Amino acid sequence: KELFKDSVRKNKWRLLLGLSAFGLLFVVFYFTHLEVSPVTGRSKLLLVGKEHFRLLSDLEYEVWMEEFKNDLLPERDPRYLTVKEMVYHLTQCNRDVPGISETNWVVHVVDSPAVNAFVLPNGQVFIFTGLLNSVTDVHQLSFLLGHEIAHAVLGHAAEKASLVHLLDFLGMIFLTMIRAICPRD
Hints:
Elements: H1 2-10, H2 12-32, E1 34-36, E2 43-45, H3 50-68, H4 78-93, E3 106-110, E4 117-119, E5 124-128, H5 129-134, H6 138-154, H7 156-181
Parallel strand pairs: 3-5
Antiparallel strand pairs: 1-2, 4-5
Protein backbone atom coordinates (compact mmCIF):
# COMPACT_ATOMS: atom_id res chain seq x y z
CA LYS A 1 0.00 0.00 0.00
CA GLU A 2 2.81 2.37 0.83
CA LEU A 3 4.52 1.69 -2.50
CA PHE A 4 1.26 2.35 -4.28
CA LYS A 5 0.67 5.61 -2.42
CA ASP A 6 4.25 6.71 -3.10
CA SER A 7 3.89 5.85 -6.80
CA VAL A 8 0.64 7.84 -7.03
CA ARG A 9 2.26 10.85 -5.33
CA LYS A 10 5.23 10.77 -7.70
CA ASN A 11 3.10 10.32 -10.82
CA LYS A 12 0.03 12.37 -9.90
CA TRP A 13 0.45 14.74 -12.86
CA ARG A 14 0.90 11.86 -15.28
CA LEU A 15 -2.16 10.14 -13.86
CA LEU A 16 -4.18 13.35 -14.03
CA LEU A 17 -3.05 13.97 -17.62
CA GLY A 18 -3.81 10.36 -18.60
CA LEU A 19 -7.27 10.40 -17.04
CA SER A 20 -8.02 13.80 -18.60
CA ALA A 21 -6.93 12.58 -22.04
CA PHE A 22 -9.03 9.43 -21.65
CA GLY A 23 -12.03 11.52 -20.59
CA LEU A 24 -11.63 13.84 -23.57
CA LEU A 25 -11.30 10.92 -25.99
CA PHE A 26 -14.37 9.29 -24.48
CA VAL A 27 -16.46 12.47 -24.86
CA VAL A 28 -15.33 12.92 -28.48
CA PHE A 29 -16.00 9.24 -29.23
CA TYR A 30 -19.46 9.41 -27.65
CA PHE A 31 -20.61 12.53 -29.48
CA THR A 32 -19.25 11.38 -32.84
CA HIS A 33 -21.27 8.16 -32.59
CA LEU A 34 -24.64 9.75 -31.85
CA GLU A 35 -27.33 9.45 -34.46
CA VAL A 36 -30.67 11.26 -34.54
CA SER A 37 -33.73 9.11 -35.17
CA PRO A 38 -35.61 10.38 -38.23
CA VAL A 39 -38.93 9.37 -36.64
CA THR A 40 -38.64 10.72 -33.09
CA GLY A 41 -35.75 13.18 -33.36
CA ARG A 42 -34.13 11.55 -30.32
CA SER A 43 -30.33 11.13 -30.22
CA LYS A 44 -29.06 7.61 -29.67
CA LEU A 45 -25.64 6.02 -29.43
CA LEU A 46 -24.88 3.68 -32.34
CA LEU A 47 -21.55 1.86 -32.38
CA VAL A 48 -22.65 -0.92 -34.72
CA GLY A 49 -22.98 0.05 -38.40
CA LYS A 50 -26.33 -0.51 -40.11
CA GLU A 51 -24.94 -3.02 -42.61
CA HIS A 52 -23.12 -4.94 -39.88
CA PHE A 53 -26.26 -5.00 -37.77
CA ARG A 54 -28.28 -6.16 -40.80
CA LEU A 55 -25.91 -9.15 -41.11
CA LEU A 56 -26.32 -9.90 -37.40
CA SER A 57 -30.11 -9.76 -37.86
CA ASP A 58 -29.90 -12.23 -40.74
CA LEU A 59 -27.86 -14.61 -38.57
CA GLU A 60 -30.37 -14.27 -35.73
CA TYR A 61 -33.18 -14.98 -38.20
CA GLU A 62 -31.49 -18.22 -39.27
CA VAL A 63 -31.16 -19.29 -35.63
CA TRP A 64 -34.85 -18.63 -34.93
CA MET A 65 -35.93 -20.42 -38.11
CA GLU A 66 -33.88 -23.45 -37.12
CA GLU A 67 -35.46 -23.45 -33.66
CA PHE A 68 -39.04 -23.02 -34.92
CA LYS A 69 -38.81 -25.04 -38.16
CA ASN A 70 -41.22 -27.74 -36.93
CA ASP A 71 -43.64 -25.32 -35.24
CA LEU A 72 -44.42 -22.79 -37.99
CA LEU A 73 -48.04 -22.59 -39.13
CA PRO A 74 -48.66 -23.09 -42.86
CA GLU A 75 -49.49 -20.03 -44.95
CA ARG A 76 -53.08 -21.25 -45.47
CA ASP A 77 -53.84 -21.33 -41.73
CA PRO A 78 -56.48 -18.71 -40.80
CA ARG A 79 -54.36 -17.47 -37.88
CA TYR A 80 -51.40 -16.93 -40.20
CA LEU A 81 -53.60 -15.09 -42.72
CA THR A 82 -54.99 -12.84 -39.96
CA VAL A 83 -51.52 -11.84 -38.78
CA LYS A 84 -50.27 -11.36 -42.33
CA GLU A 85 -53.25 -9.14 -43.17
CA MET A 86 -52.70 -7.10 -39.99
CA VAL A 87 -48.99 -6.59 -40.70
CA TYR A 88 -49.81 -5.59 -44.28
CA HIS A 89 -52.43 -3.12 -43.06
CA LEU A 90 -50.05 -1.59 -40.48
CA THR A 91 -47.21 -1.21 -42.96
CA GLN A 92 -49.43 0.24 -45.69
CA CYS A 93 -51.05 2.77 -43.36
CA ASN A 94 -47.64 3.87 -42.07
CA ARG A 95 -45.56 3.75 -45.26
CA ASP A 96 -44.73 7.47 -44.84
CA VAL A 97 -42.76 6.62 -41.67
CA PRO A 98 -39.03 6.27 -42.48
CA GLY A 99 -38.02 2.61 -42.42
CA ILE A 100 -41.46 1.09 -42.98
CA SER A 101 -41.63 1.01 -46.78
CA GLU A 102 -37.90 0.17 -47.16
CA THR A 103 -38.30 -3.05 -45.16
CA ASN A 104 -39.60 -6.35 -46.50
CA TRP A 105 -41.95 -7.53 -43.75
CA VAL A 106 -42.28 -11.32 -43.51
CA VAL A 107 -44.68 -13.03 -41.09
CA HIS A 108 -43.96 -16.23 -39.16
CA VAL A 109 -46.59 -17.66 -36.80
CA VAL A 110 -45.18 -20.17 -34.33
CA ASP A 111 -47.49 -22.81 -32.86
CA SER A 112 -46.51 -22.43 -29.21
CA PRO A 113 -48.34 -21.59 -25.97
CA ALA A 114 -45.86 -18.77 -25.31
CA VAL A 115 -47.50 -15.35 -25.05
CA ASN A 116 -44.92 -13.48 -27.09
CA ALA A 117 -44.15 -11.70 -30.33
CA PHE A 118 -41.04 -10.00 -31.69
CA VAL A 119 -39.82 -8.38 -34.87
CA LEU A 120 -36.21 -8.64 -35.98
CA PRO A 121 -34.53 -5.50 -37.37
CA ASN A 122 -34.60 -7.04 -40.86
CA GLY A 123 -38.42 -7.19 -40.89
CA GLN A 124 -39.01 -10.80 -39.83
CA VAL A 125 -42.18 -10.84 -37.70
CA PHE A 126 -42.55 -13.73 -35.24
CA ILE A 127 -45.76 -14.19 -33.27
CA PHE A 128 -46.78 -17.13 -31.12
CA THR A 129 -50.23 -18.72 -31.11
CA GLY A 130 -50.33 -18.30 -27.33
CA LEU A 131 -50.42 -14.55 -27.89
CA LEU A 132 -53.05 -14.90 -30.60
CA ASN A 133 -55.21 -16.88 -28.18
CA SER A 134 -54.84 -14.23 -25.47
CA VAL A 135 -56.03 -11.23 -27.53
CA THR A 136 -59.75 -10.63 -27.79
CA ASP A 137 -59.93 -8.75 -31.10
CA VAL A 138 -57.91 -7.45 -34.05
CA HIS A 139 -57.47 -4.07 -32.35
CA GLN A 140 -55.42 -5.61 -29.54
CA LEU A 141 -53.47 -7.62 -32.10
CA SER A 142 -52.75 -4.51 -34.18
CA PHE A 143 -51.59 -2.65 -31.08
CA LEU A 144 -49.15 -5.44 -30.16
CA LEU A 145 -47.84 -5.85 -33.70
CA GLY A 146 -47.49 -2.08 -34.13
CA HIS A 147 -45.48 -1.93 -30.92
CA GLU A 148 -43.11 -4.66 -32.08
CA ILE A 149 -42.74 -3.14 -35.56
CA ALA A 150 -41.93 0.21 -33.92
CA HIS A 151 -39.04 -1.44 -32.03
CA ALA A 152 -37.61 -2.61 -35.35
CA VAL A 153 -38.15 0.70 -37.17
CA LEU A 154 -36.68 2.80 -34.35
CA GLY A 155 -33.60 0.57 -34.12
CA HIS A 156 -33.92 -0.27 -30.45
CA ALA A 157 -31.96 -3.51 -30.87
CA ALA A 158 -28.99 -1.69 -32.44
CA GLU A 159 -29.10 0.93 -29.71
CA LYS A 160 -29.14 -1.72 -26.98
CA ALA A 161 -26.31 -3.66 -28.63
CA SER A 162 -24.27 -0.43 -28.85
CA LEU A 163 -24.78 0.29 -25.16
CA VAL A 164 -23.73 -3.25 -24.21
CA HIS A 165 -20.68 -2.94 -26.47
CA LEU A 166 -19.72 0.37 -24.83
CA LEU A 167 -20.15 -1.02 -21.31
CA ASP A 168 -18.04 -4.06 -22.20
CA PHE A 169 -15.30 -1.77 -23.53
CA LEU A 170 -15.37 0.45 -20.43
CA GLY A 171 -15.30 -2.62 -18.20
CA MET A 172 -12.26 -3.91 -20.07
CA ILE A 173 -10.48 -0.58 -19.55
CA PHE A 174 -11.39 -0.62 -15.86
CA LEU A 175 -10.07 -4.17 -15.43
CA THR A 176 -6.86 -3.23 -17.29
CA MET A 177 -6.35 -0.29 -14.94
CA ILE A 178 -6.83 -2.54 -11.90
CA ARG A 179 -4.37 -5.03 -13.34
CA ALA A 180 -1.83 -2.24 -13.93
CA ILE A 181 -2.19 -0.98 -10.35
CA CYS A 182 -2.23 -4.40 -8.69
CA PRO A 183 -0.37 -6.80 -11.01
CA ARG A 184 0.09 -9.57 -8.44
CA ASP A 185 -3.43 -9.61 -7.02
